[in-house]
């Protein structure tokens, strides 16, 4: 029994051809698609249904938590733990606490965004099956790739080759499965 491939990949010269191929594959009923491009394509992201709405929430929540912890620690240190009345100023001098709280909020939001993106994108990834496709290194230069994954419910190599072949790809290749 032969092992099923990771997927079928088509290589395109232009972003327009890639987007048209994605539309055709979606129209044919394929749902497990992955695309590779040397630069962001908003139309492609929309066609693939990529959602990035969780990232702003991660940054917002982390920023608010960081600011609250910073503000709370300043309040605790200045008004509760070691209160010093210097020149008659109030112990809870909130305007003095705001700049440090903002700086910590930005720091926490940035760090949480980085960590969240790495986890969501499953990075760093030292090996991926598509790296075995000849010419795939051009995905970061000037080529556009569409992959239909083998775990798609409608996966049929011949049908996929027919759908992708209708859009004049430079090549259609089978991606070997991981060992």
Commentary on this structure:
By secondary structure, the chain is an alpha+beta fold. The chain has 2 domains: 7-51 and 127-175, no CATH class; 54-120, no CATH class. Helices cover 47% and strands 12% of the residues. The protein has helices spanning 15-27, 42-48, 54-81, 94-120, 157-165; strands at residues 7-12, 33-36, 144-149, 171-175. Strands 2-3-1-4 form a 4-stranded antiparallel beta sheet, covered by helices on one side.
What structural category do the secondary elements indicate? alpha+beta
- The low-pLDDT segments are none
Distance between the termini: 16 Å
Shape: rod-shaped
Question: Compute the gyration radius: what is it?
Answer: 25 Å
Number of domains: 2
Helix and strand string, N-terminal first?
EHEHHHEHE
Number of helices: 5
Question: Largest sheet, if any?
Answer: 4 strands, antiparallel
> Could you report the average pLDDT, rounded to the nearest whole number?
92
Beta content comes to: 5-15%
Per DSSP E runs of 2 or more residues, the count of β-strands stands at 4
Percent of residues in helical segments?
A: 40-55%
Strand order of the largest sheet: 2-3-1-4
Essential attributes:
179 residues; alpha+beta; 2 domains; four-stranded antiparallel beta sheet; 4 strands
Briefly summarize what is shown:
Helix content is 47%, strand content 12%.
Summarize the SSE layout with pairings.
Elements: E1 7-12, H1 15-27, E2 33-36, H2 42-48, H3 54-81, H4 94-120, E3 144-149, H5 157-165, E4 171-175
Antiparallel strand pairs: 1-3, 1-4, 2-3
